[in-house]
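Task: encode each sequence below as structure tokens.

Item 1
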Amino acid sequence: MIIVEGIDGVGKTTLVDYLVTQGMKKHHFGYDEKNLDLITKYMRLLDKDTSSLVLDRSFISEMVYGPVLRGGSKIDLEAYTKLLLAYKERGLSIIYLTAPKDELLKRRQYDDSDYANIENYYNELNSYYDAIMDYSQQFVDVYRINTHEMNETAVQGFARKLR
């Protein structure tokens, strides 16, 4: 199982869609304002066959976007760790994609919401992502890739080897 994470515009969906063409199954966790029991939501996914699963976002996003955009996460660090360890039992690897702010603004120039989030919160989002990835790295493999420095084909090749 692979989780692909990073700020909007870094290339998560592009990479996930590529991995689907290579035989993986995609699952996207969007933000659900009404769902307060996120732990159950994320644990329920483990009831399925996760051997060829690739996630476009996950509970990791809640640990980043929650504090930055909503003033707090619906998942505390203890619950996050439990989720991480449960996913680790299923062979989890995390691909954390990054890119410079100016590059992301170019990529998301036609999406007002993403553009505004990048413009206003880029440094804070990166700081939270870096911190949660540093923490996660104690438990699972985390691969950091700058999609501005590594071309799409190289990123795809790297991810394909993780399957």
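Item 2
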Amino acid sequence: MALVIDRFEEGLAVLEDTETFECIECPVANLPKGAREGDVLTKSGEGYLLDPKETEARILRIKEKMKRLKKN
């Protein structure tokens, strides 16, 4: 399961499941150090892990979509 950090609200992070689009609230203290909005996380036995490769791939997909939209 991949989760994306959607936003931060009063000590909580709102995570969106990329498959079900369900939102989950998680204490910021439970996130990996340096986690930011838009980062992709995976859940493991120890908690959440950053997935920098998937985060970068997601950023590139969004940039390409924006580029196509601007052409139209």
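Check on item 2: The mean pLDDT is 94. The CA atoms of residues 3 and 37 lie 11 Å apart.
End of task.
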